[in-house]
């Protein structure tokens, strides 16, 4: 999943001139940053419908992804479209977080098969209960407890949370469908897995200076290219995992005491044609070449705003604004500030000053 979007909250009485941290916690939470450099995440992220939809993924791998998915869809037709549309594999990345010993796709599906449907499918409900008050109900529901199933459904209607619906109706059948697809995808992914693992390691190595000079929220923001994560109380770990197939998006997940960001690897970690313009330059100029996006930047030059506020001010739908905000963020023009349940957007003025620097560097002038 890409970075979470704004929720509707009251606008502050006075407009903010700089990016504030709106502290709803009563104190500054302490957390440790962990780096998790495993291709196991890309195995799952590569089944997201967003993967390969932009030229941030080099064309040979976009072609491979399209062809491999088509071949798998022919082999495993039942449920394949729903599994990718609902991004079920992305939610299952939480299973990988909990099992640091799993590195490869084959190891992931083997462990899932051994652990069974309750241990695996419970991760489909992560976004349904972000405060984790419903945690005690999930495993009994997946185990067939009628009262737990009824309680989950009453609090989280199927229309709003369709991902877990089939799992509650027939957990064993849903598990077999998911595993059949993931086992087939693991066979295909093995072709690119060693190369992906090398790219992830290269990205981690390239960030050594950042790890030495930055910490906490600042390190997260630099690594994710603009997500300023302010964890709520109880969050002890923030996990940063480089990802190739997520480019150019961040995939965010959460557990009871951790937050996870599958961030896109930097251009420098790739083996690119030296004559090809850097993706950072293309993203920036593509983002600036649209009237609506320029109007959004004008609004954010005055104060930080939530998605709902931007949509109302421009009289456009939230999905339309969400798309434009995503384009601006991956171009490095926005900081997405997440403070607990609240998400808002801040203009990165320094990036505007760099608008021509990347082009000049590419041209060598």
Reconstruct the topology from this structure:
Layout: E1 32-35, H1 40-45, H2 59-75, H3 80-85, H4 88-91, H5 93-97, H6 105-115, H7 117-121, H8 135-142, H9 146-155, H10 165-169, H11 171-189, H12 193-206, H13 208-213, H14 216-224, E2 227-230, E3 237-243, E4 251-254, E5 258-264, H15 279-288, H16 291-300, H17 307-314, H18 318-330, E6 334-339, E7 342-347, H19 349-353, H20 357-363
Parallel strand pairs: 1-3, 2-6, 3-5
Antiparallel strand pairs: 4-5, 6-7
Helix pairs in contact: 2-11, 6-11, 8-9, 15-18, 17-18
Mean pLDDT: 81
Content of β-strand: 5-15%
Structural class: alpha/beta
Helix content: 40-55%
Major β-sheet annotation: 4 strands, mixed
Please report the number of helical segments.
Answer: 20
User: Rough shape?
Assistant: globular
Element-by-element helix/strand order = EHHHHHHHHHHHHHHEEEEHHHHEEHH
What is the terminal-to-terminal distance?
39 Å
Q: Which runs of at least 5 residues are low in confidence (pLDDT < 50)? A: 1-26
Strands ordered across the widest β-sheet: 1-3-5-4
Gyration radius over CA: 21 Å
Tally of extended strands? 7
